[in-house]
């Protein structure tokens, strides 16, 4: 029997509770949500992204119908210093040579749709004053649509045209061919569907964006995660380098081992938030990079550069909220958004260890925000794992600084979530509020989805102190998935929301405003966890030997260990075994194998097994 006390005043639930977390990992941005179809469009790929990558990755020279030529790369006088590399296409024959892009696992196009094709180009010699842009089949045999770009001049200029596509092809290619012999310099070659989400230019893939919009998230956190503070100081995500004309944005390697074109930058993130009615929740680095360690050994931004960094953080608030005639508000207005974006929350730091460097950098940023923008709710950070050492130190620091909200991360087993549904009930109501900024149970199945649902109910019941929450990660592209599990999987033409997605949606779409006391009586005993016999750990000894195995823990490489299994989970395969020690097992007669079922294990993940073993007799 479930009784709800409707006469009780209840607890007000945060109106911002269930939002979404976006980070560019698993190809979530380039090749994912960002609708650009050309890969390595600015020729800025390089070994920093991936050792085998270079400026012409995803490109090839096309010599057809008697055409001959070459495709090389130059950095001499590029369209903008932020984008130093460009392609040099030379055609030595009357029939012009070309260059062709393979897209991100191919270029998906649809019959009846129109595509914006554009390129920065200049003529460097010969009469080759025009380019023909073609969307064509993978083998080049069939043209799906084409347009002419030009006339080209001796100075860099952007040339654009529209291609009407006549064929549906999930695996097309884009080819630009010189119409005549000569040398052409090309940069920022772009092919964009006109049918982006809400029709925004330089916009987002409509089906993926709609799937996120359907969550009706109250806020959207971006750009990470670890991506926000980067691998080393030079890789720190700097918001101000991601706005403005595309060819002026500074591209970067991605901490998740690919490339960030920055085509999806802060303007596009804020625009997306507005389009889906979500509050923007940007996270800036707390002056330290990922795990507080730079490749050069420099943990934080050097003292002499901190003022400039703090000014950049303050500028973000003015860019987002300042009037159109303020210095940074005018930059936003010039980009097409004179009205303020209405920034309320700002995350500072991500999973940072509370070192002296962190304390100093964070405090300086926080002090400046408090002084100049007391209207902004600053969100601090609690280390990589709930209940870990950094989490404890993070809480102490958050209390010391009297932070309004702190960001906690929990990637755990379903069991952990179910065992922790009461933890918020006893939270200090006067201390910092919680943003559960990244959480997810170890797999995409019914058990993990139910565990997350139970945890979300616990958040709602404590919606006075749990202010914000977002499952993570959000997106994962098929064949480029680096982190499991995720909320939404996709490839170039399909989107697969998970069961966990539907749990998120169920809560966010039907979020309550007041939590009333609920009493449950006569509830059935919790059924024992379903067992998945496919995933097991076998241990054993050779004949004639006996041993004890204790302190067993098993967990995914990227996550934490499953709590020690229940003694009863062990099953004898052969020989005679009995429960022993902490989650362990021992042989009571010489024997061979025992088996431990791992109901939470996920196909395709790598696991670490640790076990304490002792031989008790025999050889
Ligand atoms: O969500 C994936 C990663 O998990 C995030 O980048 C990081 O914050 C966390 O460790």
UniProtKB/TrEMBL annotation:
Signal peptide: none annotated. The keyword Hydrolase applies. Coiled coil: none annotated. It catalyses: Hydrolysis of terminal non-reducing alpha-L-arabinofuranoside residues in alpha-L-arabinosides. Keywords: Hydrolase, Signal. The keyword Cell inner membrane does not apply. Transmembrane segments: none annotated. It is an enzyme of class 3 (hydrolase). Belongs to the glycosyl hydrolase 51 family. This is non-reducing end alpha-L-arabinofuranosidase. It comes from Streptomyces doebereineriae. The lineage of its organism: Bacteria, Bacillati, Actinomycetota, Actinomycetes, Kitasatosporales.
